[in-house]
Amino acid sequence: IKEGRAGYGIFALRSCLQVIQTGAYNEKKGVREIEECEVAKMAMIRALEKGWPSIVIHSNSKRLIGMFNQNSSMDSLVKTPLEDMFAFKDLFASCPCQVLTNDMNISCNSL
């Protein structure tokens, strides 16, 4: 997930960092973690529409990553968006969330 002037970007990469799909999310709700949840949820929906059995979600928010991977939505601020993500997560064979690495940030910034 990339934040910029236009909002957030969504990109699908193969393991070799080859970009296979991009998208954008422009709605701003003011709370970064809620926005990241909404963007991740949108990416999950797109992956399901494409029939992809497994995906990896990358985020800059270590807190969000921890809550997602532990299926824990104890933070009331992001409880509803995270619970939506948990429901979509169960539809994939594998759907971990990981920290966005520098090499992926470079690929994203070049889009």
From TrEMBL:
Q: Superkingdom of this entry's organism?
A: Eukaryota
Q: What is this protein called?
A: RNase H type-1 domain-containing protein
